[in-house]
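In response to the reviewer comment on reproducibility (Comment 2.3), we provide here a single inverse folding case reported in full, input and output, so that an independent group could reproduce the run without further information from us. The structure tokens appear first.
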């Protein structure tokens, strides 16, 4: 399993316009200007590829911060 720091880095890579330094474990990712359903799909694909965990849209909707998402993924490994 990836560390929280590695997960945050991978999460930040899904954004084209947002500077990676703006994305921390405590970032409420839905408040980011660039957040969209396409980025949500990219995050789902990244988690599947990097962590071998299948996320659903509800998982994204029920998470607020990047760390919330990380903890959910970690609980399913």
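Designed residues, in position order:
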């Amino acid at each position: 399993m990836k560390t929280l720091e590695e997960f945050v880095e991978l999460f930040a890579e899904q954004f084209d316009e947002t500077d990676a330094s703006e994305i921390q474990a405590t970032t409420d990712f839905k408040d980011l200007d660039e957040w969209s359903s396409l980025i949500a799909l990219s995050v789902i694909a990244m988690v599947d590829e990097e962590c071998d965990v299948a996320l659903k849209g509800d998982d994204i909707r029920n998470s607020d911060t990047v760390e919330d998402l990380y903890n959910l993924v970690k609980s399913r490994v």
